[in-house]
Design goal:
The chain is elongated. It has helices spanning 7-45, 59-91, 95-106, 111-135, 141-170. The longest helix has 39 residues, at 7-45. By secondary structure, the protein is mainly α.
Length: 171
């Protein structure tokens, strides 16, 4: 309950939540740009064909792992944004802000998660096809195990994230 004594504190907290949302959005954007940069660079390094650089082809296997790592950091920021939005929806001093946050909770961007999943899948597939292009053969048994483990881990990360968000949204 807002009283004259708590109102300045409440307004300060709301302001800090708005700042946290903005910082998380900016951090998520930087992480997503770094993800694209690092994955593209690893895939590019892995395609060098030189006897002196033979081991660079193994950097291809790092690309999907790096994509997953960056994705998990991005998911953390997305969750922070949603957490702040939910708090504002429930506790904001402004009825208009509460109304907006309620609307925003039901009008989420469907493209960001889809694009992120698509990029992760494309990086995994690109690894397979670039290994074929560089070595002249499909990934070896060890490579298949690595790629399968990465694909399974990626799927688990996404399922846990979706489950966690769905559970959070129901609270």
């Amino acid at each position: 309950m807002v009283t004259k004594e708590t109102q300045p504190f409440d307004e300060s907290l709301i302001g800090k939540l708005h700042q946290e949302i903005l910082q998380s959005q900016q951090s998520r954007l930087k992480i997503d740009l770094l993800k694209v940069t690092f994955v593209t660079a690893l895939l590019g390094f892995g395609t060098f064909k030189s006897e002196d650089l033979k081991t660079l082809q193994y950097s291809l296997y790092l690309a999907p792992a790096v994509a997953i790592f960056f994705e998990m950091m991005s998911m953390g920021h997305t969750f922070a944004i949603r957490r702040c939005g939910k708090f504002l929806r429930l506790h904001s001093l402004s009825p208009l802000e509460k109304k907006y946050e309620s609307w925003a909770a039901t009008s989420r961007d469907p493209f960001f998660p889809s694009a992120s999943i698509a990029f992760d899948v494309v990086s995994l597939l690109a690894t397979v096809f670039l290994v074929r292009a560089v070595t002249g053969m499909w990934p070896t048994d060890g490579g298949k195990v690595i790629l399968a483990a990465l694909a399974i881990f990626q799927l688990i990360v996404w399922l846990v994230y979706i489950w966690r968000i769905a559970k959070f949204d129901r609270i």
